[in-house]
Design goal:
Order of helices and strands: HEEHEEEEEHHHE
Number of strands: 8
Radius of gyration: 36 Å
Largest sheet: 8 strands, antiparallel
Strand order of the largest sheet: 3-4-6-5-7-2-1-8
């Protein structure tokens, strides 16, 4: 009997040697399967959550396209002029903002319009075939703080950004309040960093073409504006003046 015990123990040990590796392998397989199953569940959850997020995004986009929440696109600037050249047409400039191409400049201009910054300013620089410029104020306008130039500098979108061609509106170089309408093809100004942020309607351009162009640069327009409205009317009787610029849901017929 005593001799059989060692033999029995040896056989048992051999069996354990074979079973233990198998047990370890089986445990590793079960562990691997468990990890894969957990990963699939997590991935499925992420997909579901992602779909919910995308759906929420789509819903938000649909909500943001409502007319009440969409960015204001249309601006009408009414002006008056003593020039006999412009009395035959309604004195209004219709402007369409291009938020899609120049969001920073469009937003800055709209902010100035809403603050009534341009009400009462003179179109002090009208050069035939070149530009019609306005936006200078002799006093500090306390209702709004003008932005810095880099705050309205939109990045160039190759092949899409507007160029300074006829019928576009840009901020004057170095200014964040003065704007000008391109009366002619001034695409050379693109390199100076004054990219247009809006367009002017064709009918309005007919009106712009009839603005008085008899005053040349350097005749003291800015100095006279600083003296006040009466001084301007006396020295530059044909200089047009913006009465008001307002955001509108749609253009009125002209």
């Amino acid at each position: 009997v005593n001799r059989s015990i060692p033999f029995y123990n040896k056989r048992l040990q051999d069996r354990f040697r074979r079973i233990i590796p198998l047990s370890i392998t089986l445990s590793l397989c079960i562990f691997t399967v468990a990890i894969l199953y957990t990963t699939k569940i997590r991935d499925a959850s992420n997909v579901i959550q992602g779909r919910k997020t995308n759906l929420n995004t789509i819903n938000n986009l649909q909500i943001n396209t409502n007319a009440d929440e969409a960015p204001v696109r249309f601006i009408q600037c009414h002006f008056k002029s003593n020039s006999a050249e412009s009395v035959s047409l309604k004195d209004v400039i219709q402007i369409t903002l291009r938020h899609d191409l120049s969001p920073l400049s469009s937003a800055a201009f709209l902010e100035l319009v809403n603050a009534k910054y341009y009400d009462g300013v003179f179109i002090f620089r009208v050069l035939k075939g070149f530009i019609a410029q306005w936006g200078f104020r002799p006093e500090n306008f306390v209702s709004i703080k003008p932005k810095r130039r880099n705050e309205i500098a939109d990045p160039v979108i190759v092949g899409k950004s507007l160029s300074n061609t006829r019928g576009t509106l840009s901020f004057a170089g170095g200014s964040t309040v003065q704007v000008f309408i391109n009366v002619g093809d001034n695409s050379r100004l693109d390199k100076e960093g004054s990219l247009p942020f809006a367009t002017v309607s064709t009918k309005s351009m007919v009106v712009v073409d009839k603005l008085y162009t008899g005053h040349k640069d350097g005749e003291g327009q800015i100095a006279t504006i600083k003296e006040g409205k009466d001084a301007v009317i006396k020295k530059f009787p044909n200089m047009s003046q913006i009465e008001k610029c307002r955001a509108v849901p749609a253009f009125s017929p002209i």
